[in-house]
């Protein structure tokens, strides 16, 4: 879907004004009676649904909550995503996350030492991430994040190489939105309306060939465990977990000469 929620703030800061202009978001001081909107409060920018006030707002926070817990206790380089992307002693590849979303996986890879460039095509999703990055640079424990995680806004399904610029990714990471069952949606009720607004990535098959044309070493695709291969293309190998799997398309071996 291409509906962009308005950005609501009674007293917008200079950084918020700049963000709204940069991402072409409608800035208003009126809270809508229905539908979705972005709102800035003391905890940062959040996606809110006026029709469902009891559901927690969706926000990104690199310093606390689930992301902070994952960074500290998620298993480090023993995590499946780290193994799939080829991280090992002395090897911290440059990773292009072409389906950034709320940046959870990108943050984990950056916390493990990778330089990550994230591409997000929904401006309001990018706004949530950019706001979180702005807040994170004020946290001493996250000073490294400013150098390791960058964000660009655009559609990677048609402009991946252009948006990557001179980043020269050694790994391209893809995690396209996949239709979830009602049972899965029950696990995280606050994500229901987020998925409703974003929708599934019906054009995600277009990502794989672009990624293979651009990357130097490997493409990693995160999929639900029983989902078909992206674009029907069988990977070199897969790492399978309880709910998800990582399909790995290998072009070259990652070694310690990478910077």
Report the radius of gyration as a whole number of Å: 18 Å
Number of contiguous helices? 10
- Ranges where pLDDT stays below 50 over 5 or more residues in a row are none
Q: Largest beta sheet, briefly?
A: 7 strands, mixed
The topology string of helices and strands comes to EHEEEHHEHEHHEHEHHHEEE
DSSP E strands, number: 11
Mean pLDDT: 88
| Silhouette | globular
Structural features, described:
A 7-stranded mixed beta sheet has the order 7-6-5-8-9-11-10, sandwiched between helices. A 4-stranded mixed beta sheet has the order 2-1-3-4. The protein is built from 10 helices and 11 strands. It is globular, with a radius of gyration of 18 Å. The longest helix is centred in the middle third of the chain and has 14 residues, at 123-136. Helix 7 (156-164) runs parallel beside helix 10 (205-214). By secondary structure, the protein is an alpha/beta fold.
